[in-house]
Amino acid sequence: MHYDGTSCNGCDIEVLASLAPRYDVERLGVINTGNPKHADIFLITGSMNDQNREVVQNIYEQMPDPKVVMAIGICATSGGIFSECYNVLGGVNKVLPVDIYVPGCAARPESIIDGVVKALKILEDKKHKLIEMKLGREAFVIEPATIEDAAEILALQKLAYQSEAELYNDFAFPPLMQTLPELKEDFKTVTFFKAVINGVIIGSVRGRMKDDTCYVYRRIVHPMYQNLGIGKKLMNDIEFHFGFASRFEVFTGHKSKRNINFYERLGYKMFKCEKVNDKRHRVYLEKSADRI
Amino acid sequence: MYLLSFLILFPLVTAFILLFLKNDKVRAIAITSAAVILSAGSIALLIINFHREAQYFSLEVPYIDKAIFFIETLLAGYIFYMGWKYKKYIISGLILAQFLITAVFETRYRHNIMVDHVLFVDKFSIIMTLIIGVIGSLICVYAIGYMKDYHSQHNKALKDNRRFFSFLMFVFLSAMFGIVFSNNLLWLYFFWEITTLSSFLLIGYNKTQEASNNAFKALEFNLLGGLAFLIGIIYLYRFYGVVELDKAVYLGKLGALVPVALISFAGLTKSAQMPFSSWLLGAMVAPTPVSALLHSSTMVKAGVYVILRFASVLQGSMLGFIIALIGGSTFLITSLIAISQNDAKKALAYSTIANLGLIVLCAGVGTYEAMWAAMLLIIFHAVTKCLLFLCVGAIEHRIHSRDIEDMSGLIISMPKISIMMQIGMVGMFLAPFGMLISKWAVLKALVDFNPLLAVFVIFGSSATLFFWVKWLGKIITVVNTEQDLEEGMSKIETIPLFILAFLTVGLCGLFPFVSTALIQPYVMEIYGTTLTMSQGNIVIMSIMLAMVMLFPLSFINYGKRVKVVDAYLGGANIETGTRFRGASGSIKNMAMKNYYMEKYFGEKKLYRFGILFCFIFMVFMFMVLVK
Amino acid sequence: MKIFLMIIAYIIFAPILGAVLSGLDRRVTARMQGRVGPPILQPLYDVLKLMQKDSLVVRRSQNFYIAFFLMFIIFTGALFFSGKDLLLVIFALTLAEIFFVLGGYKASSPYSIIGSQRAMIQMMAYEPIVILAAVGMYMVTKSFYITDIISYNKPLCYYLPGLLFAFIYILTMKFSKSPFDLAYSHHAHQELVKGMTTEFSGRSLAMIEVAHWYENILLLGFVWLFFANNILIGVALTLLVYFFTILVDNTFARVKWEMALLSTWIVGLVFGVGNIIVLFFVKR
């Protein structure tokens, strides 16, 4: 999948040349498809600016895993001679995680093909890792988290809440705005649980007792590990931990239908709906202890 | 025999009762019970006559012919007056001609006419009875809920004439029973004209200018057909001394083609073949139950019914060939025009005319294979088209539009109705469902007889493929999260829909039984030999049906392991994913419309073409006769 | 028993053969364009890779249609190779294609819907000729059954040259090659993106590819019916026809849909119906 950022088209022509008879990248089994959903390699020429940042992110999201990103040409690598312009954000790595850089102005077809070969190798590696993770998914462990995990949990929180933020188009949303010191403060009053695979934290939930009620919140699961029962196990474990509570309360956004369904399947019932700001309403659900 | 009279008279009595029932709820109960009784009656007829051959009955009721003539006079007077009042002089002229001929005929020849059998019943009549009794009743039940919505939502200014409406519907049902049971052609003609009159009154129901114009147009064409019918009967009596259907068929085989041609002409006008199609298209302004009952399932079937009665006569004759050509070209041209229609009811109307053309084609060919195919077509088309019309009616009331373009996302906002709609549409053109079996039978019948006629069918059915899939696709496309529009659908409307959907699927599953039980015996009677689908093919079709039925089951595991992302809009998606960033940073909505190809398949262009062709065919027909 | 074996053979070998043919197509095309081209088994590698990718969808139920598309194509191919009624095979094939088209509609994206509609236009264009070919075969062999058609004593192309020509004319349409690659071909992606398949990925896309392999074998089988008298020569001629479509693909540019529809119908009428008329009078 090829995308032209602010390129002068020099690198684009070289990309086209590598598809042409003289260099023929198709003998490696690579063809140009104009559709992200069919693509594995995202080839970007030219640098990023405000206008194309969203576009590139959209296209990246619409590519299925495993995928690699290649930055072709010096403009895509670092902004090139335009890097200090007022409208240029910089290279592709300002917006997306880049796997391969092919510098040059314009990058020659031989370099591009060389880069594609290296990208194919990275793709293979990613694929294997993905399979391993899928197989290793049975082996996740849930245990209480300590303050040392705070940084990792915060990173995970910001990643996982991206989809919620998009749903309401509200990026100034508390989970995304929380800072590390704030989170570390929370460890004093709140109990954290983490879900771990191979030493990497891929899920977390926290709970806090007040009077007789346990408030459960910030249930997060890494996007790659969703729909596998990790969220449910996290809920079960924290409910078990707070077994002496007589009532559990959770909340989520009013548009988050999947979350609402998830809680309802665990026995929670909606009892309140409150407006937070113009874009979001919060829906509160509760469950009494004997329903566990 | 008593059952036959019951089936004719009971709806008539019910009609008058309904006319005087002011209370809506009581009327609804009356209609529903009448519907149940009629269906039971039709099924009873089937069961009683299941193993019997055709039966003929004579009736000795004194003065009945005089009574019929008297009613005819009254109706003629009313129509003449209406024609005069609204300055539609052709109508007055036509009815005057009809009346004068009838009057002369009655006075001069009545006492000489010997009629052996006035009523009869055979397998074909039973099939038609089932259609009228079961499907017709279902439509009347549906109409209860529909008309209530119609008056409350749409036409608040319109006078609530629902009593008159139900009265007309039941009078119509009575007349239809009369048509399929009459052996006496004069009686057939009488019932025929009653259906014409009910059609006229029902189309003009909402009294708008458009409705009344279309009602008069329908009246005009149907009266023309009625006149031809009458002349046919007179000719038959003058030259051959009979007025009975079975005798006419017998004589036709011996060469008496003129009355057959005239009566077929009447049939062609009644089933809106080209060049007479415009009345049916205009009739779509009527409320949907009218469109379903009269103009797709029942009245227009009466037109093809008479032509089919003469199929064995038309076999192998030039007249038959010309009729087949008319039917075939109607099928082809209306199927092409249907592609460019975005008004749902008009598209359905064109499809109806097309399928009727196909039946006429089979009738004109007249071989036993064609007959088998035609009967299958009648059964499946009646059920499926009725389902489609009723669904469209329900949809129209909820989304307040008849445009296909507005039906996007229907599967989310009206799941049950859209599923039934999909069943109906799929039943119209897709294997292994009913209409496909019928089209297959038609193809098989034509390749043996004259492959050139098959060309019409082949090209036409490709055209039908296109517009049905377009519509089907529109319904399942979902752009925005729609709200649930199905709340408040009364049971009375939905139950007939469920029954019809069930019938559509069930009939095609049971089609081998239908074929052996009803169609094959009739074809056997007339021709001495019959066609059947081979065992192997039946098994394969059943497997296909079973596989297609698996489709709804796939929703159990509804999209669990997939990740939902936005459609590809060149990366310019924003927010909800159905919007994208357009030029200068503006926000635009994604919009998708179907191809309608007005330039090529537009109504105006092709229609004229069709009329020209069929007009030429008609001229040929009469030239053949004169020879 | 023999039928059972034929069906199993079809289900197992057709995708492999289809993949090889597809790879050959890409290789030959590349060579014609002066390039080297991918390895012949590339389509197989592609499908295997696709199986391991994520499945992204726009509407959750869109993949069901593809599963049924594959199922029905296999069913149709099995019907064909076990020698059943040719008309039924054609109708079943239509059913399968419709599932694919509906999948495109369900995906509710502008490109997929345009792709679906144009695929339907294509279907409207080629259906008549396919059925006319079957009718022509019936007129010669007096049967619609494939077993009878194969065992006829002379190759059908002697009697049906016009229909053969018309059928090859639409073969480019069915294989989605120029000049009729209007709906979802690989090459129209500058205008239609990927047409119907735009919103499918991962396993569903793999299924579409495999279904197309099955379908190609089925279509080549249909072509083979014209030469079925001598099996080996028939297969050789069929491969020649396939090669011919690749040649046409590389030589012609894409046409507009109006041209595609009109020209196909005219060819159908002139050559197809003409052939049938001649047969009709000769057989009298």
Lateral arrangement of strands in the main beta sheet of chain B = 4-5-6
Along the chain, the helix and strand elements of chain A come as: EHEEHEHEEHEHHHHEEEHEHEE
Please tell me the CATH architecture of the largest domain in chain A by its name: 3-Layer(aba) Sandwich
Q: Mean of residue pLDDT of chain A? A: 83
What does the average pLDDT of chain B come to? 81
Helix vs. strand class of chain A: alpha/beta
Calculate the terminal CA-CA distance of chain B, rounded to whole Å.
Answer: 42 Å
Q: Helices and strands in order, then pairings?
A:
The complex is a heterotrimer of chains A (about 290), B (about 625) and C (about 280).
Chain A: E1 2-4, H1 10-19, E2 41-45, E3 48-49, H2 50-61, E4 68-72, H3 74-78, E5 88-90, E6 100-102, H4 109-135, E7 141-144, H5 150-160, H6 162-168, H7 174-177, H8 180-189, E8 191-197, E9 200-210, E10 213-221, H9 230-241, E11 247-253, H10 257-265, E12 269-275, E13 281-288
Parallel strand pairs in A: 1-2, 2-4, 4-6, 10-11
Antiparallel strand pairs in A: 3-5, 7-8, 8-9, 9-10, 11-13, 12-13
Helix pairs in contact in A: 1-4
Chain B: H1 2-19, H2 24-48, E1 55-57, H3 64-85, H4 89-109, E2 119-121, H5 123-154, H6 162-181, H7 185-203, H8 209-240, H9 245-253, H10 257-270, H11 278-282, H12 288-297, H13 299-309, H14 311-314, H15 318-339, H16 344-365, H17 368-399, H18 410-413, H19 415-429, H20 434-449, H21 451-476, H22 491-509, H23 511-527, H24 535-553, E3 563-564, E4 573-574, E5 579-581, E6 587-589, H25 598-601, H26 603-626
Antiparallel strand pairs in B: 1-2, 4-5, 5-6
Helix pairs in contact in B: 1-2, 1-6, 2-5, 3-4, 4-8, 5-6, 5-12, 5-17, 5-22, 5-23, 6-7, 7-8, 8-10, 10-13, 12-17, 13-16, 15-16, 15-21, 15-26, 16-17, 17-19, 17-20, 17-22, 17-23, 19-21, 19-22, 20-21
Chain C: H1 2-32, H2 42-51, E1 56-57, H3 62-81, H4 86-106, H5 110-141, H6 146-150, H7 161-174, H8 189-192, H9 202-225, H10 231-251, H11 257-283
Helix pairs in contact in C: 1-3, 1-9, 1-10, 2-9, 3-4, 3-9, 4-5, 5-7, 5-11, 7-11, 9-10
